[in-house]
Amino acid sequence: MSMERGSERKARARRIVAYLKRTYPRPKSELRYATPFQFLVAVTLSAQCTDKLVNRVTEPLFKKYRTPADFARADIAQFTREISSVTFFQNKARHVIAAAQKVRSDFGGRVPDNAEDLQSLPGVGYKTAHVVLGELYGVWEGIPTDTHVKRFAHRFDLSDNLDLRKISKDLERLIPKKDWKYVNNGLVLYGRYLCSARPHECSDHPLTKLWPVANERWIAAG
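Above: the chain sequence. Below: its structure as tokens.
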């Protein structure tokens, strides 16, 4: 990539983040939970699944399972049935129970507060780890990339990569670390409530006004 294009991307990214900071100043997940481990579970279940559906599934689930010990003791067959409405529910059930067992045995029942330990848990990758760190501990050591972030990273020409981890690293190079916490939450809410994935006229949308070319760049981000 040329230095000129890199400079343009950095300037565009910073204008986008300035809008997100103003519009969504307090990053907060819309996933519902009462305990730290429940939030880890909710984020795990939310992969390629809407928060609305996850909240519907976890409402009765979290009345039964609250702590890592509760999840660690769960019967795998029953737990799998209980989350069967979410995508990839069989893998997610195995990951949740295995992660609970590891948190109980290796971390004293406390959700880890650093990315390395979080990513040692079954089913927890870069995105999940950094969403959990931000929500639970106010630690923003990375930019989590989900389908919303991936979609806008491509629409606004901020990354050429398809791999979520690589997109995160591209964004982290473009955006000052002090602003990382606004990116995932802001783009998720912007995509969820203002600029959906289906092609539509969005020239009047705030971010498109910053870079009108985006109105013609409907790039699949699945």
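Residues 36-137 form a domain with the Endonuclease III; domain 1 fold (CATH 1.10.340.30).
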